[in-house]
Design a protein that fits this description.
The chain is built from six helices and nine strands; from the N terminus they run E-E-H-H-E-E-E-H-E-H-E-H-E-E-H. It is α+β, with helices and mostly antiparallel strands and 172 residues long. The chain has a nine-stranded mixed beta sheet. The radius of gyration is 15 Å and the shape is globular.
Amino acid sequence: MARFVPFIVDAGDNQKIGVQITRMKKTDAAQTEKEPHWQTSWMSEYIQSNSFEKYALKTADGELVALAAYEILENDVMVHITYIESQPQSNPTIVGQARKYHGIGRVLIAYGIKLSIDHACGGTVTFEAKAPELAEHYVQNYGASPLPSFGGAPRYELSGEAAMKVFVMYLK
């Protein structure tokens, strides 16, 4: 039986690094307010809301690489990826191309797909693009489909074959 085996890529040597995705703890959220500061405080009232399932992505030695918040929308048969943020050293908005790790967004989108499958939502996920470059990346590299955005950030859906292509990268 195949199992989900998440990984990221070390930008220095392009080697895969196994990671663990576990429920976010308060200590993980608090780390976003320490130096080097993350773009967003994960201690905010909005993110701390119980309506989100929050997860931490860590290396085997416990390095916090990213945090992600998901909404399980079983009535809508999907998982909404509310927010994903990489550590400052790997966040392209902060460090540009000189990132420590690559593949963080992809593995956390794949985890959203896993949550969708686990909750009988068929692997469908939705999310917003924070920047036009990300929107293009989601369409070109993941096969995401645009959704109506109602004046907000551009919204996308990843489902069916496109979602499975992302997900199976992490199956062993």
